[in-house]
């Protein structure tokens, strides 16, 4: 495809004048009919690598992602742009699911997002049989590798599924692939070495600060940091749902507008909190789930009250836009 046509599609549908590093190389590979592995930092623009080709290829783009909140963000944004997209996950009711299945049957969907667990649903797989799937995009693709820290057995089924459904090409995406993991992913999906596109993980828009303090003082230090900083959206990363609830209650009692967000909440509650946060109506948000989820909110200061060792590998998580400066403060326990 001529380069000016690609840029016109980029501008018309997504509002960007230029591609970010690595994006066009991945897209060119897919449009040439080859599978690819994209290893970009969080916020490097991985989603555009399948969203734009989905508009240019004949057939469905099937996106597999383990993150419901991220699927919701992307589907909402695509629909706002007039792009036919849908998601099937545990938060979708039977009535809405039937509408989506109807769109799938009539071929009107460009992108369909699913969780990997749906691949165990035979009825769903039967609905896919015979449908032209131009592109299969696998987010968090490192989960297929036993070398990876987030190995998920259900991901092993995806490679076999791609062959069974006669998928046109595969795009594997990850932000956390060592060379061994990258080799595993390429082997699973028969991706050539030349079609592994890896970009720099240097993030000039991230500032990392660590404050050492005893564990009992972390809450007060967290409160102090929140009061010192300018008003704006904040995510407080924690590891347990109960901790998210406790931190939110503590902050609220101190006069800080905060709510918890985690997988144990009812769908309506979780959706309301997420929507309010994305609109900027909810500044701080203690969260048990967000440590692996990027967000498209424009500018976030992240405060993480847990040990540095468990968080350093996730240091780029909330930098999804890559455009606004993001400060991070890590109240870590003394060692």
Automatic annotation (TrEMBL):
One family name in Pfam for this protein: DEAD
GO biological process: DNA recombination; DNA repair
Polar residues: compositionally biased ranges: 288-302
Source domain of life: Bacteria
GO cellular component, one term: cytoplasm
Keyword annotations of the record: ATP-binding, DNA-binding, Helicase, Hydrolase, Isomerase, Nucleotide-binding
PROSITE patterns: HELICASE_ATP_BIND_1
Keyword check for Repressor: no
Region (Disordered): 285-304
InterPro entries from the UniProt entry: DEAD/DEAH_box_helicase_dom, DNA_helicase_ATP-dep_RecQ, Helicase_ATP-bd, P-loop_NTPase
Known catalytic reactions: Couples ATP hydrolysis with the unwinding of duplex DNA by translocating in the 3'-5' direction
EC numbers on record: 5.6.2.4
SMART domains per UniProt: DEXDc
CDD domains: DEXHc_RecQ (cd17920)
Domain Helicase ATP-binding intervals: 27-195
Molecular function terms from GO: 3'-5' DNA helicase activity; ATP binding; DNA binding; four-way junction helicase activity; hydrolase activity
Similarity-based family: Belongs to the helicase family. RecQ subfamily.
Record's protein name: DNA 3'-5' helicase
Phylogenetic placement of the source organism: Bacteria, Pseudomonadati, Thermodesulfobacteriota, Desulfuromonadia, Desulfuromonadales
């Amino acid at each position: 495809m001529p380069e000016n046509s690609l840029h016109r599609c980029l501008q018309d549908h997504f509002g960007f004048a230029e591609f970010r590093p690595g994006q066009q190389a991945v897209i060119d590979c897919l449009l040439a009919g080859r599978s690819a592995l994209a290893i970009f930092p969080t916020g490097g623009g991985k989603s555009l690598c399948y969203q734009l080709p989905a508009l240019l290829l004949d057939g469905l783009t099937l996106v597999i992602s383990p993150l419901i909140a991220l699927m919701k963000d992307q589907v909402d944004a695509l629909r706002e742009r007039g792009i036919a997209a849908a998601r099937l996950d545990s938060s979708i009711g039977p009535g809405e699911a039937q509408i989506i299945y109807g769109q799938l049957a009539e071929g009107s969907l460009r992108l369909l997002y699913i969780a990997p667990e749906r691949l165990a649903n035979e009825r769903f797989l039967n609905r896919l049989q015979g449908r032209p799937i131009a592109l299969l995009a696998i987010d968090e693709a490192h989960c297929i590798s036993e070398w990876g820290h987030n190995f998920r057995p259900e991901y092993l089924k995806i490679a076999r599924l791609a062959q069974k459904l006669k998928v046109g090409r595969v795009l594997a995406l990850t932000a956390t692939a060592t060379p061994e993991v990258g080799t595993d992913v390429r082997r699973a999906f028969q991706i050539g070495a030349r079609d592994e596109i890896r970009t720099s993980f240097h993030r000039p828009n991230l500032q990392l600060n660590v404050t050492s303090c005893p564990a009992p003082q972390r809450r007060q230090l967290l409160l102090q940091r929140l009061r010192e900083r300018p008003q704006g959206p904040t995510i407080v990363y924690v590891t347990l749902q109960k901790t998210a609830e406790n931190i939110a209650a503590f902050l609220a009692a101190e006069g800080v507008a905060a709510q918890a967000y985690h997988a144990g909440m009812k769908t309506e509650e979780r959706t309301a909190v997420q929507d309010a946060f994305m609109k900027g109506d909810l500044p701080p948000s203690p969260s048990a789930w967000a440590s692996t989820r990027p967000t498209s909110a424009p500018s976030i200061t992240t405060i993480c009250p847990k040990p540095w060792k468990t968080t350093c590998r996730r240091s780029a998580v909330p930098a999804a836009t890559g455009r606004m400066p993001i400060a991070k403060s890590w109240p870590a326990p003394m060692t």
